[in-house]
Amino acid sequence: MTSIPVFPRTGAQPPGPAENIWLRAVHTNPNHAADYVQRWRRLAAQGQDIHGEARMIDAMLERGSFVIDAGCGTGRTGGYLFDAGHRVIGVDLDETLIAAARTDHPGADWRVGNLAELDLRAADGSRLMADVIVSAGNVMTFLAAAERRPALVAIRAHLSSTSRFVAGFQTHRGWSAEDFIADAERAGMRLQQAFSSWQLAPFTGEDGFLVAVLVRA
């Protein structure tokens, strides 16, 4: 287990922006989501490697596992994992991104929803338990302060005793590694491993990037 010093904080909620950063960007520029879709399609068409996160997650899983892509965007990560033989449900609050995911990666289950309200259920009403929940692409740092802890609690509710939650983001975007781990602990999770890249570089705290692997406490 990688050790990151955690300093307990007091207060009603984690630090963070007053408004969800993604929604603020869309409100400022109505074409923001459509431009984002085209950016990733263009990179894929150019042959750029856009699947580093997905390859790491795939290596963690038995074939045919169940993955929740939390903040799935255009389906870049979840779509790769679906093609690799996993069952995937992707959730994102932006309808434009979900529409792109459904077009570009048919077959997986793409749903509009806020991670702070994540509650995925089977037909019999039981909560779905993922083998891995992945949140790539700085999704965690887009959350408003009031959404952060509820999102972590909701994610934890979809973890079994053998599941893992993997979140990767730039730590200079308003949620430090220490604060994120502290908030995850408050939500009922504990850090299992930490890296500074999706290629599993050791975490030093100096690279400005955290890939945290968490399990139920």
From TrEMBL:
One of its GO terms (molecular function) is methyltransferase activity. Signal peptide: none annotated. The keyword Transferase applies. The keyword Chaperone does not apply. Residues 67-160 form the Methyltransferase domain. InterPro entries: Methyltransf_25, SAM-dependent_MTases_sf. CDD domains: AdoMet_MTases. Keywords: Methyltransferase, Transferase. It comes from the Bacteria. This is SAM-dependent methyltransferase.
